[in-house]
C-alpha cells in the first residue's frame, strides 16, 4: 500500500514561514559576500596574493575540475582551511544549495497537493508562496553576480583536498550548481517551469488587486482614496474591506511577483491573457526592480536578453522593447504630488483627533505603503533611468523631486503618530475583537457543516480565544492556526474549501488584521513604511539632504533625513551577524572634534571598553597597526599633507594668525578648512593620535620643508655669483639694480620653471611658512592637551627646561617636541637638513645657507608689485600667505646655522635684516609716487617688523638702527584704515 501523508503532517504553513525567513537571511549573506569580494579591503587576503595568481587563474578557467597540485596552495593549505572568511564563504554557498533544495521540495509538494491559491482568500498562503518563489529567483540571480565565487569554492576545495586527501563532500554538487546558474533565468525557467500551474493561479488572483492599486494619481484624486472627509457621516466607522490585507500590499512587491515569476515561467504565463496584461503593465511602470537592498534587476534589458536566447521569441522580445519605450516617470511624479497633499491632510486630522487612529488605521497603512512604494521607486531609478537618449532627457526632470523632503517628513510624522498613540489603537481593537469579531466568528463557525472534527475544534478554539484576549495575550499562535487552516483548506482533497466558504475567509482575514493592531504595530510599521534601504544609498541620502537645505521652502523638513537613519537597524538579519563596514576612513572624514567626542562617549561606558579602546587607540598612534593596515594617524597625516596644505600651497587657503587656523581664500574648496585646523579641532586631533601621532605628522611636515629647502638651494647654486655680489655690494645702488634684474629675469628654459628666481624663492619660502605655522599650531594644541592630561609631568619638565640655556634646550629638542614645547632651534629640521647634505662640503653648504638668506632678503621688494600681498589686519594675514615668510626665515636660519655649529646665527640674522631693510627702502624710493602700490609697500614694512618680533636673535633697537620705525606705524595705520573703508 502506498504511504499517504496527512495534510497536517506536511507542515506547509510552518515551512513557508521558516524558509522565507531563511531566504532573506541567505540573501543578506550572499549580498555581504558579493560586496566583500568586490572590495579589496574586505576580500580574503588569499585572493589578492600575487603568489596565488596562477592558481586562481587556473581554478577560474578549469572550474569545477580543479587540479590541487599547486605548490603554493600546498604550502598554505592550513591557512586557507582555517581562514574564517574563505571557509565562511564556502559553507554559505553550501547552505544556499541546501536552501534551494528545500525550497524546490516545498514548491513541488504544494503543486502535488494541488493547492488553490487566491490572495483574496488565503492571503498568508498565497503571499508566502509568491515570496518564496521570488526569493529563490533573487538568490540565484545574486549568486551569479558574485565575482569570485568559482575561485572561492575551487581554492577552498583544493586546500581541503590537499589536507584530507579527498574533496569536500558538497563540492561536486556545489560546483555543478555554480555552473548551472551562470545564466540564472535560463536555469530557473527549467526548475520552476513545471510548477507554473500554481504560480499561474496565484498571479491570476492578484489581478483585481493589482489593477485597483496600479492607477494614476488623477484616479486616486477623483476617488478621494485617502481622504477622511470624503464620507463625513462614516468617519467614526471602522474602515475595512473584504480584502483588507491586500489594501496595503506593496506595489513594489507585486511588481516583483509579476515580472520575475512570469519571466521564469514565460511559456505558460504569457499565453494567459490576464497574466500577460499584468506583465505588460508592470513593465511599463519602470525600468528596474529591486532584487535585494541596492541590487537592481534591469527589467527590460535582462528579460530581453533572456528572450533573445530562446528560439522563436523575437515577438516577445519586441514587446519588451515596446514596454520600455512606454515606461514613464511622470506617473510616479504625479503620485508623489498627490500623496504629499493626502499625507499632510491625514497628519493634521490625526494630530487634532488621535482617536481616529482606531477606526481609520487602515487609511494610515495604505498611505504609508503607497508613499513607501513611490520613494523606493524614485530611489532605485535615480541612477538607473536612461539619460543618453531623447526618452531620458525628457523625463529626467521628473526624477528630480525637490519636494521629496516634505513627503518624507509627513510619512515619518505619520509613523510617529502611530507609535505615540499605539495604546489608542490597541484599546480600540481589543474592544472591537472582544465585542464583535469573537461573536461573528463563533456564529459563522457553528454554521459550517462540512468541517471535520479537527478543523472544527481549531476554529472553535480560535473564536473562544479571541473573546477573552487582553493586551498581554500572545497572539502569534492564533495567527499561525489560521495560516495552518488556510494551508489545509486550500488542498484539492480537502473536504471544506475556502472558495466555498468565502465569508469565513473574509471574516478570518479581518480578524487577523485586527489582532495585528493589538500586538504587531511595530511590524506593521516596518512592513508599510520601513526606509532602511536608504542605508545602501548613502550618497543619494546626503545629496537629497544638501538639496533640502538649499531650498528655503523645504529646509524645515531637513530633520527627516536624520530620522531615516533610525530605520537602518531594520536592514540587519540574524543570519548575517558578521555584516560590517570599514569605518576608519569614514571616521577620519569627520572633524577631529566629532571623532574624539564619539570615542570619549564609548570610553565612559561602565564596561571594560576603556581597556579595549586604549589598546586599539595605541595602535592608531602609529602609521600602521599590528596587521599592517593604515591607521587614523596615517590617514589624517595624508589628509593634512595632500589636501589641506597642498590646497594652501596652491593659494586656495591662507593662514590667519588671528584665528590660528587655515581659512578659505576664494573658491576652489569643497570644505571649510578652519573646521579642520582651528585650535579646538587640533586639540581633539592630538587627543586622537596622541604624541606619537603628532610626532609622525610633524616629521612628515618637516621633510616637506626640507625638500623645499633643497629646491631653494638649487636656485641659490644657479645664481651663486649674483647673490655673492649682492652680499658684498648691497650698498651700491647700480650693482643691486643689476642683481635684482638678473633674479627677476625668467629663464629661457621653460621646462625648468616658468617663473623668475626671485618669485620662486618667495613662493617656496611662503609655503615653508605655512607649513611651519600649521605645525606650530599643532604643537601648541599638543602642549595644551598634555597640560590638561599630565599636569604634574608637564610642570616638572617645564621647570627643568626653563632652567637650561639654549644649548641645553636644543639637546632636549626631541623630548620637547614630543611634549609640544617649542625650543629655540628646530632640531627636527636640522636633522633633516643634515640627512640631505651628507655629501656636501660643510664650508660650501655654509656659504649656500648664507646666500639663501641673502636671496630671500633682496627678493622681498617684489612683493610690492603683487596685488595679493595686501595685509589684512582683521586676519593678521596677507592674501598670498607672504606674512608666513618671517616665521619661515627665522626657523630655517635657526636650523641651518645650528647644524653648522659656528655660533653666528645672530650675526647672520642681522645681516639678513640689513639686506632686507636696504632693499625695501631702495624699492620704496624707486617706486615713490605710485599710489597703486602703497598698500603693498605698507605690507612690506609690517613684514620687516614681524621678522624682528618672531626672531630670538634680533631686537627692536637693531631694527631702528637700519629702518625708521615711524614707517612701520604709518603702515599699520594705513592698513587698518583701508580695511575699515572697505566695510563702509
Automatic annotation (TrEMBL):
<dbReference type="GO" id="GO:0016477">
    <property type="term" value="P:cell migration"/>
</dbReference>
<dbReference type="GO" id="GO:0048812">
    <property type="term" value="P:neuron projection morphogenesis"/>
</dbReference>
<dbReference type="GO" id="GO:0030866">
    <property type="term" value="P:cortical actin cytoskeleton organization"/>
</dbReference>
<dbReference type="GO" id="GO:0030031">
    <property type="term" value="P:cell projection assembly"/>
</dbReference>
<protein>
    <submittedName>
        <fullName>Membrane-associated protein Hem</fullName>
    </submittedName>
</protein>
<dbReference type="GO" id="GO:0031209">
    <property type="term" value="C:SCAR complex"/>
</dbReference>
<comment type="similarity">
    <text>Belongs to the HEM-1/HEM-2 family.</text>
</comment>
<dbReference type="Pfam" id="PF09735">
    <property type="entry name" value="Nckap1"/>
</dbReference>
<dbReference type="InterPro" id="IPR019137">
    <property type="entry name" value="Nck-associated_protein-1"/>
</dbReference>
Amino acid at each position: 500500500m502506498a504511504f499517504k501523508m496527512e495534510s497536517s503532517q506536511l507542515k506547509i504553513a510552518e515551512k513557508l514561514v521558516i524558509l522565507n525567513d531563511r531566504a532573506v537571511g541567505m540573501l543578506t549573506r550572499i549580498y555581504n559576500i558579493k560586496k566583500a569580494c568586490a572590495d579589496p579591503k574586505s576580500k580574503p587576503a588569499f585572493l589578492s596574493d600575487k603568489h596565488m595568481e596562477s592558481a586562481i587563474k587556473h581554478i577560474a578557467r578549469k572550474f569545477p575540475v580543479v587540479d590541487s597540485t599547486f605548490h603554493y596552495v600546498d604550502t598554505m593549505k592550513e591557512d586557507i582551511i582555517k581562514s574564517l572568511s574563505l571557509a565562511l564563504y564556502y559553507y554559505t554557498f553550501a547552505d544556499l544549495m541546501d536552501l534551494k533544495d528545500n525550497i524546490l521540495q516545498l514548491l513541488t509538494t504544494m503543486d502535488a497537493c494541488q493547492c488553490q491559491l487566491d490572495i483574496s482568500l488565503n492571503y498568508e498562503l498565497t503571499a508566502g508562496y509568491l515570496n518564496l518563489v521570488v526569493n529563490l529567483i533573487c538568490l540565484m540571480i545574486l549568486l551569479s553576480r558574485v565575482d569570485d565565487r568559482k575561485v572561492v569554492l575551487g581554492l577552498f576545495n583544493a586546500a581541503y583536498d590537499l589536507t584530507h586527501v579527498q574533496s569536500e563532500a558538497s563540492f561536486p554538487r556545489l560546483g555543478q550548481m555554480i555552473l548551472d546558474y551562470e545564466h540564472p533565468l535560463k536555469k530557473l525557467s527549467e526548475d520552476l517551469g513545471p510548477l507554473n500551474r500554481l504560480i499561474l493561479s496565484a498571479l491570476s488572483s492578484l489581478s483585481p488587486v493589482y489593477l485597483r492599486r496600479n492607477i494614476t494619481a488623477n484616479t486616486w484624486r477623483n476617488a478621494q482614496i485617502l481622504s477622511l472627509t470624503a464620507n463625513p457621516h462614516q468617519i467614526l466607522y471602522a474602515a475595512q474591506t473584504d480584502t483588507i490585507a491586500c489594501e496595503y500590499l506593496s506595489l513594489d512587491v507585486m511588481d516583483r511577483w509579476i515580472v520575475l515569476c512570469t519571466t521564469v515561467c514565460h511559456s505558460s504565463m504569457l499565453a494567459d491573457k490576464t497574466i500577460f496584461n499584468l506583465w505588460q503593465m508592470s513593465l511599463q511602470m519602470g525600468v528596474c526592480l529591486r532584487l535585494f537592498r541596492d541590487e537592481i534587476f534591469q527589467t527590460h534589458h535582462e528579460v530581453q536578453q533572456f528572450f533573445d536566447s530562446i528560439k522563436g521569441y523575437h515577438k516577445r522580445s519586441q514587446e519588451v522593447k515596446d514596454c520600455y519605450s512606454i515606461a514613464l516617470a511622470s506617473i510616479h511624479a504625479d503620485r508623489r504630488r498627490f500623496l504629499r497633499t493626502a499625507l499632510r491632510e491625514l497628519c493634521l486630522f490625526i494630530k487634532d483627533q488621535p482617536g481616529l487612529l482606531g477606526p481609520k488605521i487602515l487609511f494610515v497603512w495604505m498611505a504609508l505603503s503607497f508613499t513607501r512604494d513611490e520613494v523606493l521607486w524614485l530611489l532605485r531609478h535615480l541612477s538607473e533611468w536612461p539619460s543618453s537618449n531623447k526618452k531620458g532627457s525628457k523625463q529626467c526632470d521628473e526624477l528630480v523631486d525637490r519636494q521629496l523632503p516634505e513627503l518624507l517628513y509627513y510619512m515619518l510624522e505619520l509613523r510617529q503618530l502611530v507609535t505615540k498613540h499605539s495604546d489608542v489603537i490597541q484599546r480600540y481593537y481589543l474592544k472591537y475583537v472582544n465585542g464583535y469579531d469573537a461573536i461573528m466568528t463563533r456564529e459563522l463557525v457553528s454554521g459550517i457543516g462540512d468541517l471535520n472534527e479537527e478543523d472544527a475544534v481549531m476554529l472553535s478554539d480560535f473564536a473562544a480565544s479571541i473573546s477573552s484576549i487582553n493586551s498581554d495575550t500572545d497572539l502569534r499562535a492564533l495567527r499561525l492556526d489560521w495560516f495552518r487552516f488556510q494551508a489545509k483548506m486550500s488542498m484539492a482533497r480537502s473536504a471544506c474549501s475556502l472558495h466555498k466558504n468565502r465569508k469565513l475567509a473574509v471574516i478570518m482575514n479581518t480578524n487577523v488584521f485586527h489582532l495585528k493592531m493589538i500586538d504587531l504595530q511595530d511590524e506593521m510599521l516596518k512592513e508599510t513604511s520601513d526606509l532602511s534601504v536608504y542605508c545602501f544609498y548613502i550618497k543619494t541620502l546626503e545629496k537629497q539632504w544638501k538639496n533640502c537645505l538649499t531650498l528655503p521652502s523645504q529646509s524645515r523638513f531637513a530633520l527627516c533625513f536624520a530620522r531615516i537613519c533610525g530605520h537602518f537597524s531594520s536592514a540587519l538579519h540574524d543570519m548575517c551577524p558578521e555584516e560590517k563596514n570599514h569605518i576608519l576612513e569614514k571616521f577620519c572624514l569627520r572633524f577631529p572634534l566629532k571623532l574624539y567626542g564619539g570615542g570619549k562617549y564609548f570610553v565612559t561606558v561602565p564596561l571594560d571598553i576603556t581597556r579595549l579602546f586604549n589598546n586599539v587607540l595605541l595602535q592608531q598612534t602609529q602609521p600602521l597597526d599590528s596587521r599592517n593596515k593604515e591607521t587614523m594617524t596615517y590617514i589624517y597625516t595624508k589628509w593634512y599633507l595632500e589636501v589641506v596644505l597642498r590646497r594652501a600651497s596652491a593659494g586656495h587657503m591662507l593662514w590667519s594668525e588671528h584665528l590660528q587656523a587655515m581659512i578659505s581664500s576664494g573658491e576652489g574648496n569643497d570644505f571649510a578648512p578652519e573646521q579642520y585646523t582651528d585650535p579646538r579641532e587640533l586639540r581633539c586631533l592630538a587627543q586622537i593620535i596622541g604624541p606619537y601621532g603628532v610626532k609622525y605628522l610633524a616629521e612628515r611636515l618637516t621633510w616637506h620643508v626640507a625638500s623645499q629647502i633643497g629646491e631653494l638651494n638649487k636656485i641659490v647654486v644657479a645664481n651663486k655669483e649674483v647673490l655673492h655680489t649682492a652680499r658684498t655690494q648691497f650698498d651700491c645702488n647700480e650693482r643691486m639694480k643689476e642683481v635684482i634684474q638678473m633674479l627677476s629675469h625668467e629663464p629661457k628654459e621653460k621646462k625648468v620653471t616658468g617663473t623668475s628666481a626671485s618669485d620662486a624663492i618667495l613662493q617656496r619660502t611662503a609655503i615653508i611658512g605655512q607649513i611651519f605655522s600649521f605645525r606650530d599650531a599643532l604643537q601648541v594644541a599638543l602642549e595644551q592637551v598634555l597640560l590638561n592630561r599630565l599636569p604634574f609631568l608637564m610642570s616638572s619638565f617645564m621647570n627643568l627646561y626653563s632652567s637650561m640655556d639654549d644649548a641645553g634646550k636644543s639637546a632636549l629638542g626631541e623630548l620637547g617636541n614630543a611634549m609640544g614645547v617649542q625650543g629655540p632651534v628646530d632640531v627636527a629640521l636640522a636633522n633633516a637638513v643634515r640627512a640631505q647634505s651628507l655629501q656636501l662640503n660643510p664650508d660650501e653648504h655654509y656659504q649656500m645657507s648664507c646666500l639663501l638668506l641673502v636671496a630671500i632678503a633682496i627678493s622681498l621688494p617684489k612683493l610690492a608689485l603683487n596685488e595679493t600681498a595686501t595685509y589684512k589686519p582683521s586676519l593678521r594675514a596677507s592674501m598670498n600667505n607672504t606674512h608666513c615668510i618671517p616665521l619661515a626665515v627665522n626657523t630655517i636660519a635657526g636650523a641651518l646655522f645650528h647644524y653648522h655649529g659656528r655660533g653666528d646665527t645672530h650675526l647672520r640674522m642681522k645681516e639678513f635684516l640689513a639686506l632686507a631693510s636696504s632693499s625695501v627702502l631702495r624699492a620704496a624710493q624707486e617706486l615713490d609716487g605710485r599710489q597703486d602700490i602703497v598698500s603693498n609697500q605698507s605690507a612690506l614694512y609690517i613684514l620687516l617688523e614681524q621678522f624682528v618680533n618672531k626672531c630670538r636673535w634680533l631686537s627692536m633697537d637693531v631694527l631702528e638702527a637700519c629702518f625708521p620705525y615711524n614707517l612701520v606705524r604709518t603702515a599699520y595705520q594705513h592698513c587698518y584704515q583701508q580695511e575699515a573703508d572697505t566695510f563702509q
